[in-house]
UniProtKB/TrEMBL annotation:
It is an enzyme of class 4 (lyase). Tetramer of two alpha and two beta chains. Its EC number is 4.2.1.20. This is Tryptophan synthase alpha chain.
Length: 272
């Protein structure tokens, strides 16, 4: 059982979904990013997802792209990622890294995995790596005790979902809409159908991402998903306060509290 498994077992025992919060490392600077992620945990996030800023984020929407671009312009380096992971993992929250595969390959898959483990990281979410091409990552993650979180989409066949779930550990990341990341005014009606399909093929917990921006949406998603994943809305809190990082961090915590109230309401609804 990994730390991530322990937290998901605990939230399941409470009868509620886990809340996953995403913020990129290095935005608007390394220390403010750490402060914001810790504030997110203080606000009620169960599992942390740290983004590794990348120059070609093909699956990220404009909000996360803007933050990643700023981090890179301000001199973000991969060493900053591991320092951020170490600081956040010290809170006790399972700390995953969301990363495109190129930076992992450039550093070296085993070296990247070893540094993640040394920093106390829980594993990687790899949006552009499919299990068919992940032999080296599977070996490295097994060797260093890291979880592997792969993605499925509404367009995935049952065969693809079953194979991806078998290769994953911790949970399976189900993208509820086709397209790039970003907060939306309404959640996707494809999400419940996708979760139902996944549960018919695997016992792995299912996380829903792409689009959740407030507590009401978190409650809606939490009524049928095992994890509610929020990214762009949290990043937007920092983008909305470009000249006042303290206010940005405070806004992150407030949104995390609202989102946590949403997943708690999901528990209440399930108990009725």
């Amino acid at each position: 059982m990994s730390r991530l498994d322990d937290v998901l077992a605990a939230t399941r025992a409470e009868g509620r979904p886990a809340l996953v919060g995403y913020l990129p490392a290095g935005f608007p600077d390394k220390q403010t990013a750490i402060d914001a992620i810790v504030a997110m945990v203080d606000g009620g996030v169960d599992v942390v997802e740290i983004g590794l800023p990348y120059s070609d984020p093909v699956m990220d929407g404009p909000t996360i792209q803007k933050a990643a671009d700023a981090a890179l312009r301000h001199g973000f380096r991969v060493d900053d990622l591991f320092e951020t992971v170490e600081a956040v993992a010290a809170t006790g929250a399972p700390t995953l890294v969301m990363t495109y595969w190129n930076p992992v390959e450039r550093l070296g898959v085993d070296r990247f995995s070893a540094r993640m483990a040394e920093a106390g990281g829980a594993g990687l979410i790899t949006p552009d790596l499919i299990p068919d091409e992940a032999e080296e990552w599977v070996a490295a993650s097994d060797a260093h005790g890291l979880d592997r979180v792969f993605l499925v989409a509404p367009s995935s066949t049952d065969e693809r979902i079953a194979m991806t779930a078998k290769a994953s550990s911790g949970f399976l990341y189900a993208t509820s809409v086709m397209g790039v990341t970003g907060a939306r005014g309404a959640t996707s009606d494809a999400a419940p159908r996708l979760v139902e399909r996944v549960r018919g093929l695997s016992d792995l917990p299912v996380g829903i991402g792409l689009g959740v921006s407030n507590g009401d949406q978190a409650a809606e998603i939490g009524a049928f998903a095992d994890l509610v994943i929020v990214g762009s809305a949290l990043v937007g809190c920092l983008l909305d306060h470009p000249d006042d990082p303290v206010a940005g961090v405070a806004a992150v915590r407030l949104l995390a509290e609202d989102l946590r109230s949403g997943v708690e309401r999901a528990r209440t609804e399930q108990l009725r």
